[in-house]
Every structure is written in C-alpha cells, then in structure tokens.
Amino acid sequence: MKQVFLIGGLLLLILTKAEGQPSGNKNQQQLMAFQDSLKELSYKMVNDSIEPERYNASYKLIKTLVTALKTPYSFNFPFDSVKAISIQSSSDKRFRIFSWHVMNNDGSYRYYGTVQMNKPDGRLELFPLIDYTPAFKSPSDSTTSNDRWYGAQYYRIISVLNNVPIPYYVLLGWKGNTVKSTKKVIEILYFKDGKAHFGMPVFDGDQDNPGKKRIIFEYDRRASMVLNYEPSTNTIVFDHLAPPDPKLKGRFELYGPDFSYDGFKLQNGRWKFVPDLELKNDSTDQDDNFNDPKKMNQKF
Length: 300
Fold this sequence. Notes:
The structure is a single chain. The chain is α+β, with helices and mostly antiparallel strands. The chain folds into two domains: 1-131, no CATH class; 144-292, no CATH class. Helix content is 22%, strand content 34%. The chain is built from five helices and 15 strands. The chain has helices at residues 2-16, 28-47, 51-69, 285-291, 294-297; strands spanning 86-89, 95-103, 109-117, 126-130, 144-145, 153-160, 168-176, 181-192, 195-198, 203-204, 215-220, 227-230, 235-242, 256-267, 270-277. Strand 6 and strand 7 form a beta hairpin. It starts with a helix and ends with a helix. Residues 281-300 are annotated as: Disordered.
C-alpha cells in the first residue's frame, strides 16, 4: 500500500511541476516527435515481459507526455497514434482525459492519467489522476478528487450540461481487476472551485444501487460485457450480469451476461434505471477494445 501511494505521489509531483510554461514556442514537428517517443514507450509499457520495466516505461511516458503538453495549445494535438493511452474529449471541448494502465505480474492493474483543461490562452492546466483504488472501502459511495482517484481507463464521455445545478460528465471506463475478475465503471466528473471531483449521487431506481455516486460492475475475467451509450435515446446500455447458479450469488468473479440488458436513461439531469431493454445499438470497435484492451494496445 505504501508503495502505491509513493508512486502516486511521484506522478502528482511531476504533473504539478508542469503548471509553468517554458519560454519559446513548440511547433507541430516537435509534437510529432513527442508522439513517436510516447508510442515507443507505451508499446514497452504494455508488452515488456518484466514488470519493473513496464513501470519504468510508464514513468518515462509521464515525463514525456507532460513535456509535450507544455507546448502552447497542445490541447488541439490528438496524439492519436499512441494507442495504449485512451484520450477522450468532452463534447463541449472543455477538457480531455488521458488514461492508461500497467499490468502487474499477479494479474492486477494500476491506472494512470491526467485531465487537461482547454485554456483560451493556450497555457497548460492539468489535474493529475492518482490511483487510490486499494484505499477505497466503499467506492460506490465515495466522492473523491483527482488525487484520490478510483482508477480506470475511460473510453466514452457523456456531457450533462442542461437541467443540472452543476454541469457534469459521465465517464465509461474499463477497469481490469484481478486474475479472476474484470470491472467496468460509470464514473461522474465535475469541476468546482477550480478542482476536479469524481462521484455524484445522480443514479435513481436500481434496487442494487440506490443513491450510488458511481456504478461499478464486476464479472468473470473470461467474459465480455457491453457498457456503452445510445445517444438517440440518452441511455447508457449494459449487459445484465448474473451468476451461473443462484447459489453463487455474490461471487462476482463468476458473473457473466445473461443475454438481457438494463440501462440508465437521462431524465432531467438524473439517470433513471430501466430494466430489460431491447438492445438496438450495434457493437463497436470501442466495445471490443475495452473488453480486451490488448486488442487496442497491439495496434501500433
């Protein structure tokens, strides 16, 4: 646990130092060069067979990414060839999130990331994301900050900007868990008093998740789970997970889809649970990538 927090502290220190901008301008060619370095480091971070080398590549990636983002107006550079890092932008272009993971030898994961704000003057503002997963006793009920983050690798942002006292953003994320189980997360992000906050009680109607501040699904690592957003109906659609036998209820590492679908539908700024949906949206590349992120990571 101490090692996890020390690593998180290192990431926070590196990203905090990035608030100042160096003199001079960086050009497109320099950003392309940074992208090439990030691509090489991310490949090693995913594919090196030695765990310390994977982490060493991740630390170098952090430093390189922060240096690249110091470039004025770097927000507009996509870094889209760095496949191991998920980069998602909000629909209002207020921010974007970088998130990635490092796999441990025991089959568990550690998550890294940062939120980059889109500043009109082109200066850099980052909220580093420090994975505190081992410290959470009840993550579904917790309101957290960027320096105490329930780590995940995000693949979708849903903006909720109307009929709410504070605009917020729904993040759909993949969260590899252990050698036996995988998790997916419906996270809430909002900004207040110049800070990034995670978790908000905006989910209604699910008897298993009354008043939850984030929704967490856990299931058999060998299974695949759909968790995506259908914009035409403003609904987050997901597989209904169940144990293979009623006697195994609560053994989430054995759960899997039962060929039915539930959802959360956006109504007046809140998400109402809707059971037994008829799934109409087709699977996408994102579904495949975040059922098995290695499919994404190998596309270099």
